[in-house]
Amino acid sequence: MPPPPPPPSSSSVLLAALAVITLTTLFFSSPASAAGPRPRPFKKIYAFGDSFTDTGNTRSASGPSGFGHVSNRPYGITFFHRSTNRYSDGRLVIDFVAQSLSLPFLPPYRSVSSSPSAAPHGVNFAVAGSTAINHEFFVRNNLDLDVTPESILTQLIWFNKYLESHEGCKGTTRGGACRDALEDALIWVGEIGVNDYAYSLGSTISGDTIRKLAIANVTAFLDSLLRRGAKYMVIQGLPMSGCLPLAMYLGLTSNRDDIGCVKSANDQTRAHNAALLAVISSLRKRFPDSVIVYADYWYAHRSVMEAPAKYGFKEPFRACCGTGEPYHFTPFATCGTRFADLCPRPSQYINWDGVHLTEATYRVIANMFLNGRYSHPPFSYLLAKKQRSG
Which of 96, 98, 197, 303 is a Cys-bridge partner for 103, taking CB atoms 3.0 to 4.6 Å apart? Predict the structure, then answer.
């Protein structure tokens, strides 16, 4: 993807460069080198997505059986030392994003009280098992067995209700209270769409149909946020779903790519990301006053899978929590059930429970997005634009 257009004058180029250097020093230096508390570029974060971003909007019965019992140990064992209904042993990418911006962890929407002062630093609307396509589509096609009913448009409804009840923001366009509520907010759209393909696996519905319907709904969702006044937005692509133990368990050994993952699944998510990128390009033209960053989950994930030892990992394909061979995963005896056991060092594993990643992996991915080369334009560019706008 080409970088954003350069500013019109040499002086503004210099100011932008200085701003990027300053922000990088402020937000990504070690705590020991920082003098006093770090300033906050954003007052709040609003997050959306599926189980890779969900900080507690679901419970153990939500989502397909491969999700396991997230309310049980050993979920959360590494950082929180208890289950927080996050699908990992600890923090997620969105948690590392909040920490990097000197903000507290985002509360899940379903736990936020009706008080206008509740959740002053933002809310997480992501739901495990959530789809891009509306739930009714899966019902009509007899694919609703064990499927989370919330979609990305459900999350949009929650968001609109929250803005109206907590921020006094009514309507769906920029201006007034909506502008005030969103101008200092980072909108983080986590991955959404992997579940759509998973739920339709083995059906007569083609991957092309799923992609078209999913991208159409995501487009409507993003368009609504931008029309409402979102100015700073990060949109994650889909990861390499073919590298998850669930896909490896189900996929044929003849269906492998150059790094040993399920080729058809990875090709599918890469095609989805290409369509998403086209949408983002169009939205940038329609909303030139907003900064829209694409976080390339697919290639960030691939970078880790290609050279796991470089990032401190020893187990690229086996799940840390689970049971069975050869991937320490079986769909009906997953992490959180009495049949599963735990690896001794989760930080050496890329995958946590066969479907989701370990805190160690999420930390690496978050750093790639915030401080590396897998965000386009770089996240530092977004921070510099925010600093200049105040």
Answer: 98
208 is catalytic: no
What CATH number should be reported for the domain whose range is 41-244+252-302+359-389?
A: 3.40.50.1110
pTM given for the model: 0.87
Of the candidates 166, 272, 356, 376, the residue annotated as catalytic is 356
The answer to whether the CB of 106 falls within 8 A of the CB of 45 is: yes
Residue 151 is classified by DSSP as B
Got the DSSP string for 299-352? HHHHHHHH-GGGGT-SEEEEESEE--TTTS--TTS-TTSTT-EE-S-GGGEEES
Question: Is position 353 annotated as part of the catalytic site?
Answer: yes
Highest mean pLDDT among 68-82, 93-107, 112-126: 93-107
End-to-end CA distance of the chain: 28
> Where are the domains positioned within the chain?
41-244+252-302+359-389
